[in-house]
Design goal:
The protein contains five helices and eight strands; from the N terminus they run ββαβββαβββααα. It is an alpha+beta fold. The two termini are 17 Å apart.
């Protein structure tokens, strides 16, 4: 049985123009480490890099002794979404890949009662493909897009080979994302 509430959240990749975003329904009892896995999936990333959630002045992530002197990071696996948000308009940050610094703004759009007909998490909207891993952040992504759309660009061939032959920046399919979320949760069930 799903605990109340369900949060409709909008995830926007900061500084992208036009914006890259996703809209999800996520239960309030979702641990932040699980939310991280969900965000990786819906953005099309492979979890190659470090990440953190930023809630006011508090950082949540995977604590690591190597970083203890640098900053305090609370264990994301011990905190659920409902502990950091409670109402419409609440927002927090999620940063992925500290080198490329992909900052996501996550905002609660609605607080809903669970629908017994739905399986959570659920992607209900979005726009545009997530940038490829290691493309160089927002500015590197802009250069990448410029190069792949112009066959005469000096880096066109190199980028096309690097990205595997093609990349559609407008591609977004919520049904495909939901199929992948189903697989992710089916695998979790098998491992328990």
């Amino acid at each position: 049985m799903t605990e109340l509430p369900v949060y409709q959240i909008k995830i926007t990749l900061a500084d992208t123009h036009p914006p890259i975003w996703r809209r999800l329904l996520v239960t309030g009892d979702t641990p932040l480490d699980e939310l991280h896995a969900i965000l990786q999936l819906v953005m099309g990333w492979d979890d190659y890099h470090l990440h953190q959630f930023i809630v006011g002045e508090t950082y949540y992530g995977e604590p690591h002794p190597e970083f203890d002197d640098y900053m305090e990071v609370k264990d994301e696996s011990k905190v659920v979404l409902g502990q950091i948000v409670s109402q419409e308009g609440d927002q927090f940050g999620y940063e992925y890949d500290f080198g490329d610094s992909w900052l996501h703004i996550i905002q609660v759009e609605e607080v809903l009662e669970p629908d017994p007909e739905l399986v959570y998490p659920l992607c209900i909207g979005g726009k545009r493909a997530g940038p490829p891993e290691d493309v160089g952040g927002v500015w590197g992504y802009a250069e990448f897009l410029e190069a792949i759309k112009d066959r005469n660009h000096p880096e066109h061939a190199e980028y096309m080979e690097w990205v595997g032959g093609g990349f559609d920046p407008e591609a977004f399919d919520p049904d495909e994302i939901n199929d992948q979320l189903d697989l992710l949760y089916d695998m979790d069930d098998l491992l328990e």
